[in-house]
Amino acid sequence: MRKEIGNQKSEIGNSSEISHRELLKKIRRIQISTKHAVNDVFAGQYHSTFKGRGMEFDEVREYVPGDDIRSIDWNVTARTGSPHIKKFVEEREMTVMLVVDISASNLFGSGTQMKRDLAAEVAAVLAFSATRNNDRIGLILFSEEVEKYIPPAKGTRHVLRLVREMLSHKPQGKGTHVAPALDYLNHVSIRKNITFLISDFIFSDPYEKLLKITARRHDFISIVIGDKREIAWPDIGLINWHDAETGAQILVDTSSKKVRKQLGIEQTRRAETIDEMHRKAGIDTIRLFAGEPYDRPFINFFRKRASRR
Asked: Which CATH superfamily is 2-52+93-307 part of?
């Protein structure tokens, strides 16, 4: 028996068309589902992991017992005749850039969630966490080229706009070209920022050089979005496998253990190649799967960052 299946098709629907009502429901669901993660897990960890640009002057006040004498402002002390100290506060405000892959390969989900929906939800968690810390958040959507850029801004309304764009934007391209997105990021973000590159990294362009350049300029983290069915294939007989990015089709016999094993090996090698490339560039990688909890991978990431201090 032969079945039709696409590696970018979802069992819960693969159309990029979405009604206004469905869009509002998705945005509301993401807002509700991310609230717990932001409040209980992400916000505090985010604050302690991503530091501001340094310390900025706040005020001069009179010295009180217990103050660090190294903070004494001797000019003011001499002028007033009583000891005064300089008070500094952490310059917290930062810019967070979300660089999100919207190529055709993300319109796949073997369970209750497509990869594109997971990417939007994770981006929302990060954006809401950044908002809690009074940071600015910007968005770049890309496929074969950059398709949408929203400059960094603050506030919940701005985050909801970003989520709406991620869910509703209709991609013009099908493929995944990472290099143009990184090049665009480096042109619009002159100062150092926190960059999250969210993609399934099913790419067709060389981007290693730009990856290293970007990692030197910004605090860069890659988030790899996947689906477990891309690694562990089920036995469903003969299938016509369709690649939505390239249009290529191939007949695959999933009833063969040898074939299923080889497909799993190829996917594992691809994942290892991505991880190694990013490791050499000095980039942390977080790997997530559609339909599965993502709090634990992020907690591990935060702990890893903390251990390097």
From this structure: von Willebrand factor, type A domain (3.40.50.410)
